[in-house]
Protein backbone atom coordinates (compact mmCIF):
# COMPACT_ATOMS: atom_id res chain seq x y z
CA UNK A 1 0.00 0.00 0.00
CA UNK A 2 2.61 2.51 1.02
CA UNK A 3 4.53 1.48 -2.06
CA UNK A 4 1.70 2.75 -4.26
CA UNK A 5 1.03 6.06 -2.59
CA UNK A 6 2.62 7.99 0.30
CA UNK A 7 -0.08 7.26 2.90
CA UNK A 8 2.76 7.33 5.38
CA UNK A 9 3.81 10.94 5.64
CA UNK A 10 6.29 11.65 8.47
CA UNK A 11 6.11 15.30 7.48
CA UNK A 12 2.68 15.57 9.18
CA UNK A 13 4.43 15.63 12.54
CA UNK A 14 6.85 18.33 11.40
CA UNK A 15 4.39 20.79 9.93
CA UNK A 16 4.13 23.42 12.69
CA UNK A 17 6.08 24.61 15.72
CA UNK A 18 3.25 23.37 17.97
CA UNK A 19 3.29 19.91 16.36
CA UNK A 20 7.08 19.68 16.58
CA UNK A 21 7.00 20.73 20.22
CA UNK A 22 4.37 18.09 20.98
CA UNK A 23 6.43 15.24 19.59
CA UNK A 24 9.94 16.33 20.63
CA UNK A 25 11.63 13.42 22.40
CA UNK A 26 14.46 15.38 23.94
CA UNK A 27 14.14 18.51 26.02
CA UNK A 28 16.72 20.63 27.70
CA UNK A 29 16.10 22.00 31.16
CA UNK A 30 18.22 24.54 33.05
CA UNK A 31 18.18 22.28 36.14
CA UNK A 32 20.32 19.78 34.27
CA UNK A 33 22.94 22.28 33.16
CA UNK A 34 26.14 22.81 35.14
CA UNK A 35 28.32 25.88 34.67
CA UNK A 36 32.10 25.46 35.01
CA UNK A 37 33.65 28.54 36.66
CA UNK A 38 37.29 29.56 37.09
CA UNK A 39 38.52 31.56 40.06
CA UNK A 40 42.00 33.03 40.10
CA UNK A 41 43.96 33.91 43.16
CA UNK A 42 45.27 37.43 43.64
CA UNK A 43 43.52 39.33 40.85
CA UNK A 44 41.36 42.40 41.38
CA UNK A 45 39.61 42.24 38.00
CA UNK A 46 38.35 39.21 36.06
CA UNK A 47 40.89 38.03 33.48
CA UNK A 48 39.46 37.08 30.05
CA UNK A 49 40.46 33.66 28.70
CA UNK A 50 41.37 34.60 25.14
CA UNK A 51 40.98 31.07 23.79
CA UNK A 52 37.42 30.96 25.16
CA UNK A 53 35.71 34.24 24.23
CA UNK A 54 33.15 35.16 26.90
CA UNK A 55 34.83 33.07 29.63
CA UNK A 56 36.87 34.70 32.40
CA UNK A 57 38.99 33.76 35.36
CA UNK A 58 36.95 35.28 38.15
CA UNK A 59 38.04 37.18 41.21
CA UNK A 60 36.52 35.87 44.44
CA UNK A 61 34.09 38.73 44.28
CA UNK A 62 32.91 38.26 40.68
CA UNK A 63 32.74 34.50 41.28
CA UNK A 64 30.10 35.08 43.96
CA UNK A 65 28.14 37.21 41.51
CA UNK A 66 28.41 34.59 38.78
CA UNK A 67 27.13 31.96 41.20
CA UNK A 68 24.13 34.14 42.06
CA UNK A 69 23.40 34.59 38.35
CA UNK A 70 23.60 30.81 37.89
CA UNK A 71 21.15 30.27 40.72
CA UNK A 72 18.77 32.91 39.38
CA UNK A 73 18.86 31.25 35.94
CA UNK A 74 17.77 27.99 37.57
CA UNK A 75 20.93 26.04 36.74
CA UNK A 76 21.53 22.71 38.42
CA UNK A 77 24.99 23.51 39.67
CA UNK A 78 28.41 25.02 39.23
CA UNK A 79 31.76 23.27 38.88
CA UNK A 80 34.59 25.30 40.41
CA UNK A 81 38.20 25.31 39.20
CA UNK A 82 40.90 27.12 41.19
CA UNK A 83 43.80 28.95 39.57
CA UNK A 84 46.45 29.41 42.30
CA UNK A 85 49.10 32.14 42.34
CA UNK A 86 51.83 29.59 43.04
CA UNK A 87 52.40 26.15 41.50
CA UNK A 88 54.90 23.56 42.68
CA UNK A 89 55.88 19.94 42.06
CA UNK A 90 53.23 18.39 44.32
CA UNK A 91 50.48 20.98 43.88
CA UNK A 92 50.57 22.20 47.50
CA UNK A 93 47.90 24.82 47.00
CA UNK A 94 45.40 22.10 46.14
CA UNK A 95 45.51 20.86 49.72
CA UNK A 96 45.92 24.21 51.46
CA UNK A 97 42.73 24.69 53.53
CA UNK A 98 42.94 28.37 52.61
CA UNK A 99 43.89 27.75 48.98
CA UNK A 100 41.92 29.62 46.33
CA UNK A 101 39.56 26.76 45.50
CA UNK A 102 38.70 26.12 49.14
CA UNK A 103 38.03 29.83 49.67
CA UNK A 104 35.87 29.88 46.56
CA UNK A 105 33.88 26.86 47.74
CA UNK A 106 33.16 28.58 51.07
CA UNK A 107 32.17 31.78 49.28
CA UNK A 108 29.83 30.08 46.83
CA UNK A 109 28.27 27.70 49.34
CA UNK A 110 27.48 30.56 51.71
CA UNK A 111 26.08 32.64 48.84
CA UNK A 112 23.94 30.10 46.93
CA UNK A 113 24.47 26.73 48.63
CA UNK A 114 20.75 26.15 49.09
CA UNK A 115 19.87 26.89 45.47
CA UNK A 116 22.66 25.17 43.57
CA UNK A 117 24.73 22.01 43.80
CA UNK A 118 28.27 23.23 44.34
CA UNK A 119 30.95 21.00 42.77
CA UNK A 120 34.72 21.24 42.65
CA UNK A 121 37.40 19.86 40.39
CA UNK A 122 39.55 17.38 42.26
CA UNK A 123 42.75 17.22 40.27
CA UNK A 124 46.31 18.49 40.54
CA UNK A 125 46.98 19.96 37.09
CA UNK A 126 45.91 23.46 38.09
CA UNK A 127 48.38 23.32 41.00
CA UNK A 128 51.49 21.58 39.67
CA UNK A 129 54.34 23.44 37.97
CA UNK A 130 54.82 20.55 35.51
CA UNK A 131 51.13 20.58 34.62
CA UNK A 132 50.39 16.90 35.16
CA UNK A 133 47.30 15.69 37.00
CA UNK A 134 49.43 13.94 39.59
CA UNK A 135 52.80 13.89 41.27
CA UNK A 136 55.83 12.55 39.44
CA UNK A 137 58.03 9.56 40.23
CA UNK A 138 61.82 9.87 40.03
CA UNK A 139 61.77 8.79 36.38
CA UNK A 140 59.31 11.56 35.48
CA UNK A 141 56.27 9.32 35.08
CA UNK A 142 53.02 10.14 36.86
CA UNK A 143 52.99 8.13 40.09
CA UNK A 144 49.51 6.68 40.47
CA UNK A 145 49.51 5.69 44.13
CA UNK A 146 51.42 8.71 45.41
CA UNK A 147 48.89 10.85 43.54
CA UNK A 148 46.01 9.03 45.25
CA UNK A 149 47.32 10.21 48.62
CA UNK A 150 47.23 13.79 47.36
CA UNK A 151 43.67 13.30 46.06
CA UNK A 152 42.54 11.97 49.45
CA UNK A 153 43.87 15.13 51.08
CA UNK A 154 42.24 17.33 48.43
CA UNK A 155 38.92 15.60 49.01
CA UNK A 156 39.15 16.34 52.73
CA UNK A 157 39.92 20.05 52.35
CA UNK A 158 37.27 20.54 49.67
CA UNK A 159 34.66 18.77 51.78
CA UNK A 160 35.70 20.72 54.88
CA UNK A 161 35.07 23.87 52.83
CA UNK A 162 31.49 22.69 52.27
CA UNK A 163 31.40 21.37 48.72
CA UNK A 164 28.44 19.12 47.80
CA UNK A 165 30.06 17.01 45.07
CA UNK A 166 33.73 16.50 44.30
CA UNK A 167 34.77 15.80 40.72
CA UNK A 168 37.92 13.65 40.54
CA UNK A 169 39.17 14.28 36.99
CA UNK A 170 42.72 12.95 37.05
CA UNK A 171 42.08 9.41 35.73
CA UNK A 172 44.28 7.70 38.33
CA UNK A 173 43.38 4.06 38.98
CA UNK A 174 41.49 3.69 42.23
CA UNK A 175 40.76 7.39 42.63
CA UNK A 176 37.07 6.99 43.44
CA UNK A 177 37.71 4.42 46.18
CA UNK A 178 40.42 6.52 47.78
CA UNK A 179 38.35 9.69 47.66
CA UNK A 180 35.28 7.89 49.04
CA UNK A 181 37.26 6.45 51.92
CA UNK A 182 38.90 9.80 52.72
CA UNK A 183 35.53 11.55 52.75
CA UNK A 184 33.92 8.92 54.96
CA UNK A 185 36.81 8.81 57.41
CA UNK A 186 36.57 12.58 57.79
CA UNK A 187 32.84 12.37 58.53
CA UNK A 188 31.78 13.63 55.09
CA UNK A 189 29.47 10.73 54.21
CA UNK A 190 27.06 13.15 52.56
CA UNK A 191 29.56 14.61 50.13
CA UNK A 192 29.06 12.87 46.79
CA UNK A 193 31.36 12.01 43.91
CA UNK A 194 30.84 13.02 40.31
CA UNK A 195 33.35 10.67 38.70
CA UNK A 196 35.09 11.54 35.46
CA UNK A 197 34.63 7.97 34.32
CA UNK A 198 35.44 7.96 30.62
CA UNK A 199 37.86 10.80 30.09
CA UNK A 200 39.79 10.78 26.85
CA UNK A 201 43.25 12.17 26.07
CA UNK A 202 41.73 14.85 23.87
CA UNK A 203 42.91 17.80 21.80
CA UNK A 204 39.56 19.36 22.72
CA UNK A 205 40.99 20.43 26.10
CA UNK A 206 43.42 22.87 24.43
CA UNK A 207 41.71 26.14 25.38
CA UNK A 208 41.20 24.97 28.99
CA UNK A 209 44.95 24.93 29.55
CA UNK A 210 45.00 28.70 29.22
CA UNK A 211 41.95 29.00 31.47
CA UNK A 212 43.77 27.29 34.35
CA UNK A 213 47.29 28.48 33.50
CA UNK A 214 48.52 24.93 32.99
CA UNK A 215 52.00 24.64 31.57
CA UNK A 216 51.95 20.99 30.52
CA UNK A 217 54.76 20.09 28.13
CA UNK A 218 54.07 16.45 27.34
CA UNK A 219 50.65 14.83 27.14
CA UNK A 220 48.30 12.86 29.38
CA UNK A 221 48.21 9.68 27.31
CA UNK A 222 49.50 7.43 30.11
CA UNK A 223 46.43 8.15 32.22
CA UNK A 224 43.63 9.51 30.04
CA UNK A 225 41.95 7.11 27.59
CA UNK A 226 42.92 6.56 23.99
CA UNK A 227 40.32 8.06 21.60
CA UNK A 228 40.51 4.80 19.64
CA UNK A 229 38.93 2.79 22.44
CA UNK A 230 35.30 2.33 23.49
CA UNK A 231 35.51 -0.90 25.46
CA UNK A 232 37.62 0.45 28.28
CA UNK A 233 35.01 3.12 28.97
CA UNK A 234 32.72 0.33 30.16
CA UNK A 235 35.47 -1.10 32.31
CA UNK A 236 36.07 2.31 33.88
CA UNK A 237 32.32 2.54 34.48
CA UNK A 238 32.22 -0.80 36.27
CA UNK A 239 35.18 0.19 38.39
CA UNK A 240 33.86 3.64 39.32
CA UNK A 241 30.50 2.16 40.29
CA UNK A 242 32.14 -0.50 42.42
CA UNK A 243 34.24 2.19 44.12
CA UNK A 244 31.19 4.29 44.98
CA UNK A 245 30.66 6.91 42.26
CA UNK A 246 27.34 8.76 42.70
CA UNK A 247 27.28 10.16 39.17
CA UNK A 248 29.49 9.24 36.21
CA UNK A 249 30.69 11.41 33.38
CA UNK A 250 31.88 11.14 29.79
CA UNK A 251 34.26 13.75 28.45
CA UNK A 252 34.57 15.34 25.90
CA UNK A 253 30.99 15.20 24.66
CA UNK A 254 30.42 15.78 20.96
CA UNK A 255 33.19 13.61 19.53
CA UNK A 256 32.28 10.85 22.03
CA UNK A 257 28.50 10.54 21.68
CA UNK A 258 28.83 6.82 20.97
CA UNK A 259 30.66 6.35 24.29
CA UNK A 260 28.02 8.42 26.01
CA UNK A 261 25.27 6.20 24.62
CA UNK A 262 27.02 3.02 25.72
CA UNK A 263 27.71 4.34 29.20
CA UNK A 264 24.14 5.65 29.52
CA UNK A 265 22.73 2.26 28.53
CA UNK A 266 24.89 0.47 31.12
CA UNK A 267 24.81 2.88 34.05
CA UNK A 268 22.45 2.59 37.03
CA UNK A 269 23.53 6.06 38.24
CA UNK A 270 23.02 9.44 36.52
CA UNK A 271 25.28 10.05 33.53
CA UNK A 272 26.74 13.48 32.85
CA UNK A 273 28.72 14.79 29.90
CA UNK A 274 31.22 17.62 29.71
CA UNK A 275 31.03 19.84 26.64
CA UNK A 276 34.65 20.93 26.88
CA UNK A 277 36.63 24.05 26.06
CA UNK A 278 37.51 23.04 22.49
CA UNK A 279 33.88 22.32 21.66
CA UNK A 280 33.02 25.78 22.94
CA UNK A 281 35.91 27.51 21.18
CA UNK A 282 35.15 25.92 17.79
CA UNK A 283 31.59 27.20 17.80
CA UNK A 284 32.57 30.65 19.10
CA UNK A 285 35.29 31.01 16.46
CA UNK A 286 33.06 29.92 13.60
CA UNK A 287 30.27 32.20 14.83
CA UNK A 288 32.65 35.16 15.13
CA UNK A 289 33.43 34.65 11.46
CA UNK A 290 29.74 34.62 10.58
CA UNK A 291 29.96 31.03 9.34
CA UNK A 292 27.30 29.49 11.57
CA UNK A 293 24.22 30.49 13.53
CA UNK A 294 25.65 30.58 17.05
CA UNK A 295 22.46 30.19 19.10
CA UNK A 296 21.09 27.36 16.97
CA UNK A 297 24.45 25.64 17.20
CA UNK A 298 24.50 25.91 21.00
CA UNK A 299 21.05 24.39 21.37
CA UNK A 300 21.66 21.72 18.73
CA UNK A 301 24.90 20.52 20.32
CA UNK A 302 23.32 20.43 23.78
CA UNK A 303 20.26 18.60 22.46
CA UNK A 304 22.47 16.03 20.76
CA UNK A 305 24.41 15.38 23.96
CA UNK A 306 21.14 15.01 25.85
CA UNK A 307 19.73 12.69 23.15
CA UNK A 308 22.86 10.51 23.26
CA UNK A 309 22.14 9.79 26.92
CA UNK A 310 23.56 12.52 29.14
CA UNK A 311 21.21 13.76 31.80
CA UNK A 312 23.46 16.47 33.21
CA UNK A 313 25.63 18.61 30.93
CA UNK A 314 28.59 20.72 31.95
CA UNK A 315 28.77 23.57 29.47
CA UNK A 316 30.33 27.02 29.35
CA UNK A 317 27.06 28.15 27.72
CA UNK A 318 24.94 27.01 30.68
CA UNK A 319 23.75 30.50 31.63
CA UNK A 320 23.04 31.58 28.11
CA UNK A 321 21.36 28.30 27.19
CA UNK A 322 19.15 28.46 30.27
CA UNK A 323 18.00 31.90 29.22
CA UNK A 324 17.24 30.67 25.68
CA UNK A 325 15.11 27.78 26.92
C1 LIG B 1 41.68 18.32 34.70
C2 LIG B 1 40.63 18.82 33.79
C3 LIG B 1 40.78 19.20 32.46
C4 LIG B 1 39.53 19.63 32.02
C5 LIG B 1 38.66 19.53 33.10
N1 LIG B 1 39.35 19.01 34.17
C6 LIG B 1 42.00 19.27 31.62
C7 LIG B 1 42.67 18.03 31.18
O1 LIG B 1 42.33 16.93 31.59
O2 LIG B 1 43.61 18.16 30.41
C8 LIG B 1 39.21 20.11 30.64
C9 LIG B 1 37.93 20.87 30.53
C10 LIG B 1 37.79 21.60 29.25
O3 LIG B 1 38.59 21.44 28.30
O4 LIG B 1 36.82 22.38 29.15
N2 LIG B 1 41.70 19.08 35.89
TrEMBL record:
EC number: 4.2.1.24
GO MF assignments: porphobilinogen synthase activity
Pathway of action: Porphyrin-containing compound metabolism; protoporphyrin-IX biosynthesis; coproporphyrinogen-III from 5-aminolevulinate: step 1/4
Record keywords, A-Z: Heme biosynthesis, Lyase, Porphyrin biosynthesis
CDD domains: ALAD_PBGS (cd00384)
Lipid biosynthesis listed as a keyword: no
The keyword Protein transport is assigned to this record: no
InterPro entries given in the database record: ALAD, ALAD_AS, Aldolase_TIM
Pfam families for the chain: ALAD (PF00490)
Top-rank EC class of the record's enzyme: lyase
Function in brief: Catalyzes an early step in the biosynthesis of tetrapyrroles. Binds two molecules of 5-aminolevulinate per subunit, each at a distinct site, and catalyzes their condensation to form porphobilinogen.
Family, as annotated: Belongs to the ALAD family.
SUBUNIT field: Homooctamer.
Protein name from the UniProt record: Delta-aminolevulinic acid dehydratase
Native source species: Kitasatospora aburaviensis
Amino acid sequence: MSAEFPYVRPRRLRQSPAMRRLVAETRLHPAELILPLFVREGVSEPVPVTSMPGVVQHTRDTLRKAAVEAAEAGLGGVMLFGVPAVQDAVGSEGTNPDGILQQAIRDVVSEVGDALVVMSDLCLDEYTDHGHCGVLAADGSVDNDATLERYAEMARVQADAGVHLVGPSGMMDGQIAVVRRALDEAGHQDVGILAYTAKYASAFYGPFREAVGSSLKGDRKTYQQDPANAREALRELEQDLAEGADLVMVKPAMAYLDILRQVADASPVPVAAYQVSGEYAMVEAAAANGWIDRERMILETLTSIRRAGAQQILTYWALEAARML
